[in-house]
Design a protein that fits this description.
It contains 28 helices and no strands. The longest helix is centred in the C-terminal third of the chain and has 37 residues, at 406-442. The protein is mainly α. The termini are far apart. Helix 14 crosses helix 15 (328-347) and helix 16 (353-368) crosses helix 17 (378-392).
Length: 599
């Protein structure tokens, strides 16, 4: 009976991973599903509640596992510390249930993976086969239509990685003696073949991750056999990795590496994230608040790189993300996560194909997560968290089910599971209305757009629907008072100092309502966030001049003209930047615009 319950729960969790962006499946029938990423299904907050349902219902078994295995005991204790830290962050920054649950995801889901490890291992090949078939089917439709293949993930980089981790599921149709070779060939067929199939949209991160995962799996198989010297070898490797990591960290933090590759803006993002982490080394800033905190810490050189943008939800490195999100404990938790997964890979018994497949997926995602945003997506991040728990339980003898506790288990599933279902419904309803509002905007219909966005905010406010509604109120309906209410909720409800250009738009809204003096701190904040913003500098100068601050306005006007020269444009081109602020944010977008304008 317990096996049946565990299997059902594992199936539910793995199916939920496939429904993180439910509209993506519609691309099997219609190639283009506009803004499919706006409709979030199972996100981190829903997964956190599902994880707690599993953990709360399985406490008796978890206690036995902790008594039986020292590694699991340490892992679960540190997960508990992480939950307490997330609660302390709510006290420090102010309560927001969405951000709180998103933080808890990092601790509840891996522990749930420990409890469901046996069933997840068994179901994993079928899950990966469905993932591969769905991703490949959608990708083929997109390729044949001349589009970059983003599959179920929403990004072509992540799509290639999901194809690479799921392709080895095909080998379970092969005879046993051919499976290892078949798995290697299928994975590297994807990782290398992408450069032939879609050279303009090939992922170097996928190839690097596959090579790294293969090397580590080979090393763990050797370590499994080296019982007498395993501790010495692991200690030496850990020390070497720590030294290399510190050298790289300080090379990035001090600007040495970013200055050597001025167009590799990942390095500059890492430099800013390192500065943010050090500034908040105690409790961190909370993972969900990273985007609102990072902008002032980015080096100015980042904004001169081709791919500078207005949003920075993740530093393209999971280690730095946890460092900024949870402070020093984030580093500890990243090490704990890596150690738990590697321990499982080393403990793998010879010819244990299910653990080998789990370790392969986990390692590819771990490595790619250090150079991209892939682990911040619910599909890849949720799979990684479950596999962390699955590998942590590898080699641990199976425990017998604990009799009784029926009422506790029912209450856990009813409470946490019911809350997850309610939150899922709110996500879907709010996301659907936000998507409809954005589609109406694309079609040039601001009136229905505002109605849909207001409905979305009423159902479940998010930073994105508040920001979009404020933008519509400000620019389409010229209602700065309503816009100001929306933009300020980003700070009051979500405790974010800024989101994209929210500080600048608060400044514009205040100025438009006649509160010129009150707008000045927001113009200043916007310029700190975007030091190459000609649009904000010009508006700031105009407000200063209206207030009679002539000397300061003249200085800003001088800086503005210098900035236009730096961008390679003149005052006649500037109005285009006012109409489309992407041209102000991104040098590559401005470059393409100027090239098209000359034609």
């Amino acid at each position: 009976m317990r096996n049946h319950r565990e299997r059902t729960i594992a199936i539910v969790l793995l199916c939920a991973l496939l429904l993180t962006l439910p509209l993506a499946w519609g691309k099997l029938w219609s190639v283009q599903v506009p803004l499919f990423g706006e409709l979030a299904g199972f996100d981190f907050s829903v997964f956190a509640l599902l994880g707690f349902a599993v953990v709360a219902a399985g406490i008796p078994e978890l206690v036995r596992l902790m008594r039986q295995d020292r590694g699991i005991q340490i892992f679960v204790v540190f997960a508990g510390i992480g939950v307490l830290l997330a609660a302390l962050q709510q006290v420090k920054f102010g309560w927001n249930s969405t951000l709180f649950l998103s933080s808890l995801f990092y601790f509840s889901v891996p522990v749930a993976g420990i409890l469901l490890a046996r069933e997840i291992r068994r179901i994993l090949p079928l899950f990966l086969l469905i993932l591969f078939a769905g991703s490949l089917g959608i990708s083929l439709r997109e390729w044949t239509s001349g589009l970059p293949a983003v599959g179920l993930s929403g990004n072509w980089n992540w799509n290639w990685t999901l194809l690479a981790v799921s392709a080895p599921s095909l080998v379970f149709f092969f005879p046993v003696r051919f499976r290892l070779a078949g798995g290697i060939l299928s994975a590297f067929g994807v990782a290398a073949g992408q450069f032939l199939i879609s050279p303009g949209y090939a992922s170097r991160g996928t190839l690097i991750s596959c090579i790294g995962a293969t090397a580590i799996l080979f090393a763990t198989s050797r370590l499994h056999l080296a019982n007498n010297h395993r501790k010495k070898i692991l200690t030496g490797l850990a020390v070497a990795a720590a030294i290399a990591g510190l050298a790289f960290y300080y090379g990035v933090r001090d600007g040495f590496l970013p200055s050597r590759a001025p167009q590799e803006n990942r390095l500059m993002l890492w430099q800013g994230a390192a500065a943010l982490g050090e500034a908040h080394w105690g409790l961190g800033v909370e993972p969900g608040r990273f985007e609102g905190e990072i902008a002032p810490y980015l080096p100015v050189s980042y904004f001169d790189s081709d791919f500078a943008t207005d949003r920075h939800p993740h530093p393209h490195n999971e280690f730095l993300y946890l460092w900024c999100g949870f402070g020093l404990f984030g580093i500890v938790w990243w090490v704990m996560t890596a150690a738990a997964g590697l321990r499982g890979a080393i403990r793998r018994r010879r010819n244990d194909e299910l653990i080998l497949l789990a370790a392969w997926c986990w390692l590819v995602l771990l490595i790619h997560g250090q150079i991209d945003v892939v682990l911040s997506t619910p599909l890849a991040g949720g799979l990684f968290a479950l596999l962390t728990g699955t590998l942590a339980a590898a080699g641990v003898p199976r425990i017998r089910p604990v009799a009784g506790y029926r009422g506790v288990r029912i209450a856990a599933f009813a409470g946490f599971g019911g809350a997850a279902v309610i939150l899922l419904g709110l996500n879907l309803c709010s996301g659907w209305n936000c998507r409809e509002g954005k589609l109406a905007l694309l079609n040039g219909n601001p009136e229905p757009a505002r109605r849909f966005l207001e409905r979305s905010v009423a159902i479940l406010p998010t930073v994105e629907n508040l920001y979009t509604l404020g933008t519509v109120n400000l620019f389409d309906f010229h209602d700065p008072s309503a816009a100001l209410t929306n933009f300020k909720r980003i700070t009051s409800d979500f405790r974010l100092p800024s989101y994209s250009h929210s500080a600048g738009r608060i400044a514009r809204s205040l100025a438009a309502t006649g509160k010129l003096k009150e707008s000045l701190p927001y113009f200043e904040q916007e310029q700190r966030n975007f030091p190459r913003s000609a649009v904000n500098l010009r508006l700031w100068e105009t407000v200063l001049r209206a207030l009679g601050e002539t000397k300061q306005a003249d200085r800003h006007l001088f800086e503005w003209r210098k900035l236009l020269g730096r961008k390679g444009i003149n005052e006649f081109i500037f109005p285009y930047l006012m109409r489309d602020q992407r041209l102000d944010d991104s040098p590559i977008e401005l470059k393409h615009f100027l090239e098209n304008d000359r034609r």
